[in-house]
Design a protein that fits this description.
The structure is a single chain. By secondary structure, this protein is mainly beta. It has one helix and four strands; from the N terminus they run E-E-H-E-E. Strands 1-2 form a two-stranded antiparallel sheet. The longest helix is centred in the C-terminal third of the chain and has 5 residues, at about 60-65. The model has no long low-confidence stretch (mean pLDDT about 80).
Length: about 100
């Protein structure tokens, strides 16, 4: 199983961050490829991930994303807060 790790830029003082990070993932129709997004609050005191406030995570399969007719797929986040937010993925397919 191939693993991809992407870390978008940090956004300061933003309660509703909107990352414009683009990345490419090879889609294999016959394989179940899981995506996991973890969101952390960042501050300037430390660059270590263990020192960040965990806000939540979202999981889905790449197949669910590709099957979305709207080219946008929304995944609810689960985390320590009951208001976990969501991860919205805008995507395009290429050949």
């Amino acid at each position: 199983m191939k693993r991809y790790f992407f870390s978008p830029s940090k956004l300061d003082n933003n309660l509703n961050p909107d990352w414009q990070t683009k990345f490419t993932i090879d889609y294999h129709f016959e394989a179940r490829q899981m995506l996991k997004f973890e969101v952390y609050d960042w501050d300037r005191r430390s660059d270590k991930l263990t020192k960040k406030d965990y806000l939540g995570k979202a999981k889905c399969s790449l197949g669910m994303v590709v099957a979305s007719p709207a080219k946008t797929f929304v995944v609810p986040m689960k985390g320590p807060s009951e208001h976990g937010g969501q991860v919205s993925l805008n995507f395009e397919t290429t050949v």
